[in-house]
Amino acid sequence: MHGEAAELGVLVGYDGSPGGERALEWAVREAGSHGTLLTVCTAGTPAATFRDGEDGAVALGVHEGERSLCRGHIDARRRLGCGMVRSLRVRGPAVRALCAYAGRAEMVVVGSRGLGGFRGLPLGSVSSQVCAHAPGLVVLVPGAERVARLPAGGEVVAGFDGSASAGAALGWAFEEAGWSGAPLVVVRCWRAHDASDPGDPAVVAGERRTAVQRLEEDVARWREKFPEVDVRTRFLDRPPRETLRALADRARLLTVGARGSGGLRGMPLGSVSRFLVDHSRCPVAVAHDRQMPDGIDGR
Q1: Where are the alpha helices (DSSP H) in the chain?
Q2: Quick check: helix, strand or coil at residue 112?
């Protein structure tokens, strides 16, 4: 996967909730397709030990209240093999643990809402903070309230605006498309000018040509590295939020940078990426710089 093999492989936050189950399902499929380690992180619960039985891994010393959590760990081991699944139990807050361990993982996977989430809110507190603050790549898997099942087919869609984080997201989108054999669509949404003040037409046309050229150059560099990927670019004179959300309705994965070229410094997520993790009907991969940020409250 992107960069060198990471110690924890695919790191998934799991709490036994329906959202956690969907995140685990996606993470198991991702780790299996890449042949990489899956690390299942559970916060604030007693650890379970495992041994190999005739029908796969079984849990030892588990209290009744812990069985839903253990079922997820056991199912992952049965599907991937005991040697490909690691259980990581932490006593502190889930947010701080996932953000702290993200630098040692290829990606972090979270569900849209876990146990204790408030009905009607787009994201739970854990998923919201991890998407905003975890370094590297975070994948948000939507809940059943958005989509009946997780998409296995369809395109990989990459939103691109020329920013550094969008460039990181584009690279990972190429890699994911190469592994899965899915076609890749790279979308650049050109900003809509105020009709009452459209600006100097010559200047606007020049800016647009520069944006088109930047898109083609960046895609060409990744196409050289992944020649097997079926990729096409779309330069659209439309607002990015609704455009990318509509494309995500039929995609297997949407990738975006955490903060675009017009984002406010200090804001962990830009308005476009925040909108998409709140509303997309397919998994959304958000690319951050790999550094441990401040501002995590850990609740």
Answers
A1: 18-34, 67-80, 94-101, 125-133, 164-180, 201-225, 240-248, 271-279
A2: coil
CA-to-CA distance for 270 and 258, rounded, in angstroms?
Answer: 6
Element of type H or E holding 235: strand 231-236
Of all helices (H) and strands (E), which one includes residue 139?
A: strand 137-141
DSSP 87-118: EEEESS-HHHHHHHHGGGSSEEEEES--TTPP
Closest CA relative to residue 158, chosen from 232, 264, 214, 101: 232
Per-residue pLDDT of the chain (299 residues; tens, 9 = 90+): 444 457 999 999 998 888 899 999 999 999 998 899 999 998 865 545 555 444 444 444 444 436 667 788 888 999 999 899 998 888 888 888 999 999 999 999 999 865 444 344 445 678 888 998 999 999 999 987 777 666 667 899 999 998 888 999 999 999 999 998 999 999 999 875 555 556 688 888 888 899 899 999 999 999 999 999 999 999 998 899 999 999 988 899 999 998 655 444 444 578 899 999 999 999 999 998 654 334 433 33
Residue 265 DSSP label: T
- Cα distance between residue 259 and residue 137, in whole Å: 13
Which has the closest alpha carbon to 117: 78, 143, 137, 91?
A: 143
Cβ-contact 284, 151 below 8 angstroms:
no
Q: Are 256 and 166 in contact (CB under 8 A)?
A: yes
Q: Of 226, 256, 235, 239, which Cα lies nearest the Cα of 157? A: 256
Q: How does DSSP assign 167-195, residue by residue?
A: HHHHHHHHHHHHHH---EEEEEEPPPPPT
Q: Reduced to 3 states, what is the DSSP secondary structure of residue 236?
A: strand
Phi, psi torsion values for 187, nearest 5 degrees = -115, 125
Local structure of 96: helix, strand or coil: helix
